[in-house]
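$ fold --in a.seq
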Amino acid sequence: MKGKHILVFRFSALGDVAMCVPVLRCLVQSYPELKITVVTRKRFVPLFEELPNVHFFTPNFNGEHKGISGLYRLFKTLKKLRPTAIADLHQVLRTQMLLFYFRPFFWIKQAHINKGRADKKRLTRLNPKTLVPLLPQVHRYAQVFEKLGFPLSLSAHEFPPRPISPNTDALQLAENRKWIGIAPFAAHDSKQYPLDLMQQVVAFLQQEHQVILFGFGEKEHAQLDIWANAYPNVANATGVYDFGAELRLIAQLDLMISMDSANGHLAANYNVPVLTLWGSTHPCLGFTAFGQPEQHCLTPDLTAYPLLPTSVYGNKKVKSYQDAMRSIAPKAVIELALEIVGGN
């Protein structure tokens, strides 16, 4: 294995990049002499910093690596790293172009992810359906390395020790309570739990627990500040830490409540229990948080909304389905949350 060097392509999005972490842990554990270079955006590097023998290259797609000419410059730079294999975990136009540029170098093995697009299209067609679980995304990542001659057993995955907590003085967190993280936002409205219902969840859970809110950007920060100011045991972590420190805070949680979104994957990477709420998407599509039991997923009433799931990523709106997530009662979220933290 000595002398082998894999380039791993995964540029976005945060949740998908986060799902690479358990797979790379297994790769490092199984092949300790293998050199790995993750080619990803600079802001995602803290996700992988725990891993030995893992290096990084961070393209600048808004500058020198922009456009076709920029991709060719990126290819020439990556070629100088002398890879022996390329694992494309993204399979978008940029990575396809890079693989094309590398094709004449036949001694550099290539493999790319099978996204199962046809199966996902079948499960999101607007008709009643039988929900047959698809291959989870982490297993699709593992398949890529198997094609390159590096088979992995995700069942042998081992979580690392949780990192040291960042300084939490600014949040004034109660040390004598269990910490519940809540990330109430999603990239698309159709997979975001209504905020008025989530506020009920926050209001109840903060009575006996420390609730920590996670968001991104000024708009989400302002909304979460309202809740943090309204309840004594609620803190807003949005914008308080850099990404690496926020990851270390997430690692200290006793539970993360999130949508089908990145925060659930970030928490799962540290073996934090995750309760996920699903709207127009569904766990059967393969994007559940790593290592989390099926019963930690709450979905809308499929009897009332038989066309679900209607989207792979939540970016499609379906008439009369905008209130599907309201069929998930706050009481159900609260009871499941209490069951999970009570068992920790």
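$ fold --in b.seq
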Amino acid sequence: MNGIVIDINPTILHVGHLEIRWYSVIIMLAVVAAVLVATRQFKRHGIPAAEVYSLLPWVVLGGMVGARLFHVIDEWGYYSANPLQAFSLWRGGLAIWGALVGGGIATITYSAAKHLPLGRLLDALTPALLTAQIVGRFACIINGDAYGGVTSLPWAFIYINPGSMIPAQLFGLPTQPYPVYEMLWNGLTLFILLRLGRRFSRDGLVFLSYLSSYSLGRFALTFVRGQNVFWGLQQAQIIALLTLAASLIAIVYFTRVKRSPVGLV
């Protein structure tokens, strides 16, 4: 079989009952990378860099809660039978759509409380968010929890470590390296927004462009994954279509109205 063999134990070591996993370490590195990028972007957008550290705990907490909640709902059949596993964040299982919702609510609340322009704040956070997504997907590569369907492509991933979270029926088989596809798409989006974002005349358009791009990429790339659930589409694809439509409508509206909408200036 052709492919890249992934034989990395997701668990680094055990200390008593404490389990240290690659997933947790990489997610922390993703947060650090996001902070470094956000600090620079805040300065460029005229927002005090110190606000990054005040906003960070709320965005991380909101994002984690939302990401886990969406994942548990998506895998309700498993978690309804194993309710305590819903709190095992260190084992993986964070849905990006939930992270966007939870983190978005935290950002909106913080913006209102500190009287910061929401659109500018979201634009400054967008490159940091993309950076965190790119770094965070390395955790999924090791974990095997964001797998694709069986393929004969030479760059397929073949999981052979017993600790991986790939389903038993795919264990040892070459599968689509979905995390890599998403990392490449997000990297391209980040590059384009960093190059073209300064040309946007309205606050909030960088963030809306990110939403449109990510939704489009997520909808298309998710076809390499299994588990179709509704009209031949996965839950993530349905959310992607709705988000894409909403963000495109918002972009058209914001670029046509004479004044920026309330809350985005």
